[in-house]
Structures are given as C-alpha cells and as structure tokens.
Amino acid sequence: MGLTFCNVHFTKQPQRVVYISGSLMKSLKLSGKRNIRLRLGKEAIPAVVKPIKRAGKHLFLASGVQNAIKVPKSGSIYLRNLQNDEVQLGPLVGVLSDGPGSPGQPFASRTGFIKQLLRQGSSMCYIFAFTPRDINWQQERVNGYFLTENGKFERKMVPLPDVVYNRLPSRRAETSQAINQLRERFIRKKIPFFNWSFFNKSDIYRLLESDSFASQHVPETRSSPEPGIIKDMLERHHFVYYKPSAGSLGHGIYRLTYLPKRGYFARYRKGGKNVLLRFSTFDSLMRLLQSRHGRTLHSYVVQQGIRLIEIDGCPIDFRFHMHKNGSNQWVVVGIGAKKAGRGSVTTHLKNGGSLLTPQQALGRVFGAKADEVLQRAKQTAIRLAESLEIQHRHLLGEIGFDLGIDQDEDIWMFEANAKPGRSIFRHPSLRAEGKASIEHILEHCLYLSKFRRRDDM
Prior knowledge:
Organism: Paenibacillus forsythiae
Keywords: ATP-binding, Nucleotide-binding
Number of helices: 12
Protein name: ATP-grasp domain-containing protein
Number of domains: 4
Domain ATP-grasp: 371-446
Helix content: 25-40%
InterPro entries: ATP-grasp, YheC/D
C-alpha cells in the first residue's frame, strides 16, 4: 500500500470527478484507470478519474466529491493507495475532549493544548477536536472543531475519523455508561482509540506485579488495606503513603509515619495548608482516617515509603513523560524533577513544589555520576512502559510515570498516569520537549491510522 504526499485543490464542478496530475497518477499506480473510490475517514464514494497535465503531485476535487465525503480543506495532505483502486485522503484525526467551555474556549482549560495539537497537526493530517455530543452515530458524522489560520475554531461536518486521541478530562465521566458505549462503538468500527481511560492505582500495581522486571521497581503496595496491614507496613517501613485508588494531582494523600517511643504521625494537606498531627496510639490514627474516609477504607491503597534523594532537605521525584513514536516504540520525551515544598506530603507544584531539570537535580546529588543515573532511569521507564502495555488490554500511546530514586540509586515507580498533565513543559528548559511531545502524539496517530511516514517525503 503506497503512501504519497500531494496538494489538494477544490473546483466548482458539481460532478463526482477527480483531476489527477501525471506524476501523482504514477505514484498511486492509477495510470489508465477511469474510476476510483475516494475515502476520507470511514466514508468512501466512487469518482471518475481525469488525468491532467501539471507538474508536481496535484489532486483537484470537484465540489460533488468534496461535499459528498466532507473533505475539510485544501492544501497538502497524504494519499494512501489501498486495494481495488481505492485511494484514501488523510489521515482524519479526532481529538476527543469535553467542556464545560465557552464559545472561545470550548474545551475549558484544555483548549490551549488542543489548539497546539491542531496547529501543529494541520501540516500532516486533517485534525479536529470534538466532544461526545458532536457525534451523529446514525449518519456516522462528527461536527468537529477545526482551527483556522488565524487561530479561531470553526465547526465542520466530517466522517468518523481514522483514529481518536482520547483526552476526556473527567475520571467520573469516563466510567459512565454513555462513554463506555462510545468507546465500544469506535472499536466495533475498527477505529483505533487511545488512551482508553484514566488508570486506577490498584489496577496498575496489580498488573505490574506479574512482571518480574517491573515488580522490582514498584514499592510494596496493598489495595483496600485492613488496619492490621497498615500497622504491619508502618512497623516494617517506618513510613507509608496512603492514597486514593482513583486520585490525581496529589489530592487526598497522607504520609503516615511510625517512630518507636514517639508515636504515629499523619501529614496531609487541608484547606491549602500542610497539616502534621501526632497520635499516641495506632488506633487513634485509624480513627482519624476512618472519620474522614469511612470505616472500610476500600478505595485507598497503602504504599511503602521510600527514602528519596533530597535537595536542601526536601525530597525529589521525577515525572517521566512517555510517548509511542511513529514506529510504535516507547520513548522518553520529557523529564521534570519535582522538589517537594517544605512540609508537603507530595512534590506537586500546586502544593508548594518547584520544578528543576533532571540534570540540575541529579547533578547536585550525584555529581559526575548524574548522567549515568539518568540513563539508567530512562531505560527503566521504557521497560516499565513496555510491561504496562503488555498487561493492559487497550491501546496506550502516552504515559506519565512518577519515578523516585533512593539514596542507593535504586529506581522506584510510584504512579502511572494515562493522561499525564503537561505542567513540566512550562519550565523554560523543557519547552522544546513540550513541542516534541505533541509531535509524538501526531506521529503515533499516523502510525495507528496506517499513514506511516516514509523517509523520502
């Protein structure tokens, strides 16, 4: 199946005719053909072929063709030569997200990121954003948001896309029956859909337990722990993290500490401030947790605390932003080192943490060995991503790992996020990585839609 790049033009003739330049006819192996089927997304129509003399690779679509399959714009695009004289324009890429938004900001706080994706993707594909409400399943069409050259959104009706990049923002909405149905419909229509959903912490730890390499890098973690389990882990590890299975952004996390002869301590965040409480007995600590989260504590996990490397007495961990590339391989695209705010239970920036480059952080801790430690951490992150993908049932194209490095240079995986935030790319030294992240998303869309790029283009 051949792939070529061409210039698409629109003409006003009402017929279903396509005019193809000689060199494009040759590239598509259509010489002598009088009819083709032209496809965009999940829609295809028959069209008459008329060769034209024009230098370069050009495709002119009569309005009868353009309107029938809803080709959204003229300009440069890929053509894929399929079997039985079928030619596909594209790829047609859909970015799924949601509001609540305003006309100028239809995807609320994600609008800026989506605009970046659409702006950068417009040179290699037809790319649009949409919400679940924008799909007409009866007509198999989507009323999508395209980006104009002056950076404004405009709505255009297009066929169902070749691939969907899922950036639905709400964990709660993703578990609704309507969204489950939406995902299954895309899969039934053989439309690749990544990333499937937010990860649940308990599921991720369970999946990685069965992989001998990955399990070495995951701290001891127990789901829905009984009080006896929490007490046992505190006595063995001296401190643990107690966190919600479906949490994000550091919300609801406790650092629990046991110091013999001094008692038990709980550190957490409340009302925008760090709180530290001391308890003389384990039972009084449990009463606090049960009063705040219910007696069963079934939606929480307890995780072994790790003595992380520190700068100025504050622990450091690392966000590894992973992507599948255009060859379907996992790569590390960006790394942010997060230094905890003083007295904070997490390294989240909103809780007083600060962001450094990995070279800055590791250089201060390991000196000349910093680069060696960083390379080992990158290799570990790639192996963890590969392991998680094997164990996970659905398509993954992006993962955010929160990794820690302890005083012995051992590497630990604390969290895996299917829809990682992009706050690390705000660091002035990581802006190029932010752009590369978007390029990898687009390249993976080309891969999944079978519009693989060739080196000679």
